[in-house]
Specification:
By secondary structure, this protein is mainly alpha-helical. Helix content is 72%, strand content 2%.
Length: 321
């Protein structure tokens, strides 16, 4: 099968989403290591300025060639940059100052559900009940993971201002993925990512100036900061957005966001490989539950050979859709 034919298949969508998750999964590990040394908007600006400069030789030709399409879609791209780049990571870092890690993890699991609800009720996309059941199963897996299997910890939750910021990022994820799905085929991925890099970097500047009091302040560039910025710019920004956007256009926003649940297990795997954090039994079990939920959402319901046409008030209708 030729590449151009393969990249439009469902199999390609699963490959792209897996590569996107792997590219993104180390983001939290790197961010955690830099949290004490770099302020959030400063880190985000450095990340996306570097990503823009690195991607410019590869993306500018496509950006210029498709400038008319980008001009027609500038409102959508502006919102994509706002919800996926400039505000998202900055709000996550700010939330971490007041919100507990457990709260942040639990609230962020609303992203796939909000994406599905937005797709169904705002964009009239038809979703099967198995999609919501799969989301519920995977959410339970996430809850088991972040509570270390002790669900009684949910009774001790205390809510803070940062929790509202995390809820805001969950809404942003839903908006971002549904818009990417809606503009599918109207602009190429390379041109879109180049536009997102440029739009996003510009949008972060006011946040950076607010954070520094209007002054030009840069952190001390240690070797760990340079290597972390390189990873964040190349893998967690450029490659992640290329793979993720391609997957969303193929699979649709609700299906693609199901794989969001694999981020904690993938991040745990990266932490185990990179910084020697031990893997526990509850992490393995919850990972299996998460995968089971994703598979149920994708393939749940009656199999095709059991679907049949029935008469409903004299009209044929397919059941178990």
């Amino acid at each position: 099968m030729q590449w151009n034919a393969f990249r439009k298949t469902q199999a390609a969508g699963y490959v792209f989403i897996s590569l996107g998750i792997l590219s993104w999964s180390g983001n939290f590990v790197a961010a955690r290591g830099l949290a004490a040394s770099v302020d959030p908007a400063t880190l985000n600006l450095l990340r996306w300025v570097l990503a823009s400069l690195l991607f410019l030789p590869f993306g500018f030709a496509a950006f210029w060639r498709e400038r008319k399409a980008i001009g027609l879609l500038w409102k959508e791209i502006f919102v994509l940059a706002l919800t996926g780049i400039s505000l998202y990571d900055t709000m996550v870092f700010l939330a971490g100052r007041t919100s507990e890690a457990l709260n942040m993890s639990l609230i962020s699991t609303l992203s796939p559900l909000l994406t599905a609800l937005m797709a169904q009720f705002f964009f009239k996309e038809k979703l099967r009940p198995s999609m919501y059941m799969g989301i519920a199963i995977s959410t339970f897996g996430i809850v088991a993971l972040v509570t270390d299997g002790n669900l009684e910890r949910l009774l001790t939750l205390r809510f803070a201002e940062g929790d509202l910021l995390i809820l805001g990022t969950a809404l942003m994820s839903a908006v971002y993925n549904n818009i990417v799905s809606r503009i599918s085929g109207k602009v190429g991925q390379t041109a879109l990512v180049m536009a997102l890099c440029l739009f996003g970097a510009v949008q972060i500047i006011p946040l950076y100036l607010w954070e520094t009091g209007g002054q030009l302040v840069l952190p001390e560039f240690s070797s760990s900061l340079v290597w972390s910025l390189g990873y964040l710019a190349v893998f967690a920004s450029i490659l992640c957005f290329l793979f993720w956007n391609e997957a969303v256009q193929i699979l649709g926003a609700p299906k693609a966001m199901l794989f969001y649940y694999t981020l904690p297990p993938a991040s745990g795997l990266i932490a185990w490989l990179v910084i020697d954090e031990p893997a526990q039994l509850i992490q393995i079990l919850s990972g299996m539950i998460i995968v089971a939920g994703i598979l149920f959402a994708l393939y749940g319901g009656a199999p095709k050979w059991r679907r049949r046409k029935v008469e409903v008030y004299g009209q044929p209708a397919e059941i178990n859709k």
